[in-house]
UniProtKB/TrEMBL annotation:
Keywords: ATP-binding, Carbohydrate metabolism, Kinase, Nucleotide-binding, Transferase, Xylose metabolism. The lineage of its organism: Bacteria, Pseudomonadati, Pseudomonadota, Alphaproteobacteria, Rhodobacterales. This is Xylulose kinase. It comes from Cognatishimia coralii. Catalyzes the phosphorylation of D-xylulose to D-xylulose 5-phosphate. The record marks 6 as: Important for activity. InterPro entries: ATPase_NBD, Carb_kinase_FGGY, Carb_kinase_FGGY_CS, FGGY_C, FGGY_Carb_Kinase, FGGY_N, Xylulokinase. One of its GO terms (molecular function) is D-xylulokinase activity. Signal peptide: none annotated.
């Protein structure tokens, strides 16, 4: 049997499968995500351990015999988090998460350091790990002085599981310390952040063995044989493995808390000036590029919270078929933006509201605004030379036909909806565990899901939505200028 552990921002998901990847059971456990100050986002790493114990305990209570036969564990996790450990392996402060923007000044200074973009293949974004350590060095020097190891969130979970300090290249590529082309830590990048390679975990490919499950946990969970723990992957790389997107031209659009447009790459071809991320894939000699918006379903959640309704009720009030863009427009920069603007101070806005604008009109504007932002990501990917002919549609937002038709029409390409089943980050973690433990080839393991339906662009509406997108794109500079004036 195999176990995939996906350490997300709001909770941990454990997925138990049989030897060929068929799902036996799954369990989830949540935890808090405190925001102690504006722009801050933190978590207590001990909450991740408690969630893991809770989820595996639930699986064991229902499937003791299957849990006893676990052969491999794969890990997936939220990227960019800074988990700081002292010499005894104790956590020094709450982990600073991916959506924390306090280190925007440090990110800008690091990004201006000669050769940083050449080494890492990426802009140094405020959410990345390296600027967080510069912030700690400046504002919490006593913590920085005690820091012996810096681990990404899932790699702290790995430390608890195995006792080993190990990371995989797909997650490490989001730190701004990795030579992404060489798939190795960069001494120059680390030096720019006041660190050395001794502060870093060792590196393995996501499909390789990173360590063995500790005997005490084996006994506690009733597992009989030795258990390998795979290198695993950053959440989006794991989702790509779960959806079988690891060859050139394969990709997906994900409508989760954040929005992602990902394209797998057979070669390394960074273009940091586009604000597209170029990261190592979770499998050897592969990379991926992706555009990221920070508030996709989070934008709908925000609207629902303020209207006193549920996101599902708001989405269901819209028709399945689109009829044309709304006059009201929403720019979804509630937490700043990554691709293509790289601006932590940017904030969202409604434009074109009417006295008759109701909750339905506001919901349509929010969903369209996210779709326009994802079109920005598609244009940024095209600027790097990346081509996609069709993409899988993943994430909770993919349940909205209105949203999918809007995106397909704005992209001018079909969106493919997977049939019911597991194909997300937890399944990607399982597949990486299988690759680490078995002799099977990656092509045999990383298959694409069956397609239940294809959402085609509405050709008769393409001109209207293109005009809507051009109007949207023209508004962003005004919001950027406003953010600079306000000084957020």
């Amino acid at each position: 049997m195999y176990l995939g552990l996906d350490l997300g921002t709001s909770g941990l998901r454990a997925l138990l499968t049989d030897p060929v990847g068929r799902v036996i059971d799954s369990a989830e456990a949540g935890y808090d995500n405190p925001h102690p100050h504006a722009g801050w986002s933190e978590q207590d790493p001990t909450d991740w351990i408690a969630a893991c114990e809770s989820a595996i305990g639930a699986l064991k209570s229902r499937n003791a015999a299957a849990v006893a036969d676990i052969k491999g564990i794969g890990l997936s996790g939220q990227m960019h988090g800074a988990t700081l450990l002292d010499r005894a392996g104790q956590v020094l402060r709450p982990c600073i998460l991916w959506n924390d923007t306090r280190s925007s000044a440090e990110a800008a200074a690091l990004d201006a350091t000669p050769k940083m973009r050449d080494i890492t293949g990426n802009i140094v974004f405020p959410g990345f790990t390296a600027p967080k350590l510069l912030w700690v060095a400046k504002h919490e020097p006593e913590v920085f002085a005690k820091t012996v190891k810096v681990l990404l969130p899932k790699d702290y979970l790995r430390f608890w599981l195995t006792g080993e300090f190990v990371a995989d290249q797909s997650d490490a590529a989001g730190t701004s310390w990795l030579d992404t082309g060489a798939r190795a830590w960069s001494g120059d990048a680390l030096k720019a952040g006041g660190l050395t390679e001794d502060h870093m975990p060792s590196l393995v490919e996501g499909s390789e063995v990173s360590g063995m499950l500790r005997s005490s946990l084996k006994e506690a969970w009733g597992i009989r044989a030795p258990v390998v723990v795979a290198g695993g992957a950053a959440d989006n790389a794991a989702a790509a493995c779960g959806a079988g997107c690891f060859a050139e031209g394969q990709g997906f659009v994900s409508l989760g808390t954040s929005g992602v447009l990902l394209a797998a790459k057979d070669s390394y071809a960074p273009a940091p000036e586009t604000a597209v991320h170029t990261f190592c894939h979770a499998v050897p000699a592969r990379w991926y590029q992706m555009g990221v918006i920070l508030a996709a379903t989070d934008s709908l959640n925000w609207l629902a919270r303020n209207l006193g309704q549920t996101p599902g009720d708001l989405a269901r009030a819209l028709p399945d078929q689109i009829t044309g863009p709304n006059r009201a427009m929403f720019l979804p920069y509630l937490s700043g933006e990554r691709t293509p603007h790289n601006n932590a101070a940017l904030r969202g806005s409604f434009v074109g509201l009417d006295i008759a604008s109701d909750s339905k009109a506001l919901t349509a504007a929010v969903l369209e605004g996210v779709a326009y932002a994802l079109r920005d990501n598609l244009e940024a990917l095209k600027a790097t030379g990346t081509e996609l002919s069709s993409v899988l549609a993943l994430g909770g937002g993919a349940r909205s036909r209105f949203w999918l038709e809007t995106i397909a029409t704005l992209f001018d390409m079909p969106l493919r909806l997977p049939a019911d089943g597991e194909f997300g980050a937890a399944m990607g973690a399982v597949r990486l565990a299988m690759a680490a433990a078995e002799e099977a080839s990656l092509e045999e393991i990383m298959t694409q899901p069956d397609i239940a339906e294809t959402i085609d662009p509405r050709a008769e509406l393409s001109e209207a939505y293109e005009a809507g997108y051009q109007r949207y794109a023209a508004l962003a500079p005004a919001l950027i200028a406003d953010a600079e004036r306000v000084g957020l």
